Amino acid sequence: MTHASDPIVDGDLRPRNTYVTAIQQQPITVEHKPYIPKHGAQLTDAGTARATVAVSNDSPNGTTEDGYAAKHQHQTVIQQHVIYWDRDQDSIIWPQDTYIGCRDYGWGIILSLIATMFIHFGLSYPTAPGILPDLFFRIYVDRIYKAKHGSDSMTYDNQGRFRPQQFEDIFGKYDRSHKGGLDLGDVWIFWKEQRMVFDFFGWTACALEWIATYLLIWPSDGIMRREDVRGIYDGSIFFKRAEEIKRKRILDAH
Q1: Nearest 5°: phi and psi at 150?
Q2: Half-sphere exposure of residue 169: CA atoms within 13 angstroms, side-chain side
Q3: pTM of this prediction?
Q4: 142/160 Cα distance (integer angstroms)
């Protein structure tokens, strides 16, 4: 058995609580262990969902670069995840917004068109304010939590908050060689083991999301680092990478 213990607080002489996180009779629990905060970990209350900040043990205050977290305290983390694509910040994402965002990110015409098609086909109707589908396939940012699906990491809760425990579990369970990130082999195992029975839409959506995540991060060594993935969840990496590409294009032009 694998045991974990609660840290002893200075001056607290109560016995520590012990709990079992893995048993040999079920090898899969040994192979994929959940995230357990170590004594002195910066991340506190990992099981409590955060409404406006995507926190992790490496970034206990969320994305602080350029005041990102502070600027977006009026939006849930799942809203922050998509606001890069809302070009005019009117809380409605048109297909052309997504296409332009993809192009600004450095993607080619064909890939940008394919991404736009899949994103708006999958997310428009769940976020539509009425029963009828939106004829223009727009995505409504205020209702983006409605587009949450099963068979994923469950890092977003059903209201669009960020769940640190589930985020850390992705790497605790599936970073097989403790390299600080995931390669495609890790993602393949994650995808297989997160599938819920008969959830064909969720299986497909999860696979497409991780493919998109890999393309968006495009790691030179094939490893998607923990903080880059966290930046996908709160959307901060989109702005950062788009700005880097913009500066590179300006330099290349000169």
Answers
A1: -85, -175
A2: 20
A3: 0.90
A4: 10
